[in-house]
Design a protein that fits this description.
Shape: globular
CATH class of the largest domain: Mainly Beta
CATH architecture of the largest domain: Beta Barrel
Distance between the termini: 55 Å
Low-confidence stretches: 106-124
Number of strands: 16
Order of helices and strands: HEHEEEEEEEEEEEEEEHEH
CATH superfamily of the largest domain: L,D-transpeptidase catalytic domain-like
Number of domains: 2
CATH topology of the largest domain: L,D-transpeptidase catalytic domain-like
Radius of gyration: 21 Å
Helix content: 10-25%
Largest sheet: 10 strands, mixed
């Protein structure tokens, strides 16, 4: 038996206990170009050194960028990355899967779905795989406040979850962002314009000051440390990226947000995947976060009371493929049927 002669269980698992792979709940993968050539990644598969860790920053910029593309795409599909292996992704419920013994070549092992890595305006509707929506509505493009309502569906249409709660948006209201919605007429978001993005956006990873996610959360989480930044300089390779700017990272930006703030605003937050993949100058560092004071506007984010944000984070289910829909009422009414909105 192969597992008996390979002493390191990281390579071949004991079939009595199995691994996450033996349960059909995990996948190892990398990125390739259109011709099938592998792209630059941090390490080869099964390199269990520190370089394979997801937070390792002393790598070529191209490897860091490709690692992020892969991670963002898999998290959008509901998977969770293993912190120590950039290539390894698990179903969040992997421990509930039974051990499987499948012969190689079995039809049940075939992958029938292609994951779309690029998120730019590619669909006119909320896909059937989306089971959770976070809907923010304002009364007009220039309004600075609105309401947030959660929705979920299980085959019988959208149903409200809980009561709506107040939110604040950009100091100059809303403007169309770069999301999953088709092109629409109206104001377009630009870097530093003090508008929050309107449109349909995947909800990305949660972050915070604590070592772990809020109790009860199932959503992917990252701790914000003293070197954590989000770059808002359009000329930087790190534009619109949250990362740890350790001494080994070459600085190519002139402006960035310090994510471990002295105040409470980013104590907990959700990253909004606006302008992904990045187009320079179309807006960066957009979050759902805690407001400074009730109703205080933002520079482009959407803010709310801390307890409401925590409720939202705990409600999010990786299997629900949650999206943020953020629109003024007029645009919401116009797009509702075509986009499949509640």
């Amino acid at each position: 038996k192969l597992w008996q002669i390979v002493p390191d269980p990281r390579y071949v698992a004991d079939p009595k206990t199995g691994s996450r792979h033996n349960r059909g709940a995990s996948v190892d993968l990398t990125l390739v170009d259109k011709s099938g050539n592998e792209l630059t990644m941090p390490t080869p598969f099964d390199d269990f050194t520190e370089k394979a860790h997801r937070d390792y920053s002393q790598l070529p910029p191209e490897a860091i960028k490709n690692r992020k593309i892969l991670q963002d795409a898999m998290e959008d599909e509901g998977f969770m990355g293993l912190p120590t292996e950039w290539w390894h992704f698990d179903d969040p419920e992997w421990s509930h899967f039974a051990l499987r013994d499948e012969p190689l070549g079995s039809p049940s092992l075939r992958v029938e779905k292609t994951v779309k890595l690029s998120a730019g305006a590619s669909t006119a509707a909320i896909g059937g795989e989306v089971k959770q929506l976070v809907v923010v509505r304002t009364s007009g493009w220039s309004e600075k406040g609105g309401t947030l309502q959660r929705f979920e569906r299980s085959g019988e249409g959208w149903k409200r979850v809980g009561e709506p709660w107040p939110v604040s948006v950009g100091g100059k209201g809303l403007a169309w962002g770069r999301g999953l919605q088709p092109a629409e007429d109206g104001p377009m978001k630009q870097e530093g314009d003090l508008t929050a993005p309107a449109g349909i956006f995947p909800i990305g990873k949660s972050y915070g000051y604590a070592d772990a996610a809020p109790a009860g959360s199932r959503w992917p989480y990252g701790r914000l440390g003293e070197t954590s930044l989000c770059v808002d300089d359009p000329k930087s390779k790190h534009y619109n990226e949250i990362f740890d700017a350790t001494p080994g990272v070459a600085k190519d930006w002139s402006s960035a947000e310090t994510m471990r703030r002295k105040d409470h605003l980013y104590k907990w937050l959700l990253n909004v995947e606006q302008n992904t993949p990045v187009q320079c100058g179309c807006g960066s560092c957009i979050f759902l976060h805690i407001w400074r004071t009730p109703g205080a506007t933002t520079e482009g984010c959407t803010a709310m009371e801390e307890e409401n944000l925590l409720t939202l984070i705990r409600w999010l289910d990786p299997a629900g493929r949650a999206m943020l829909v953020q629109l003024p009422d007029e645009a919401y009414g116009k797009c509702r049927d075509a986009w499949g909105l509640p």
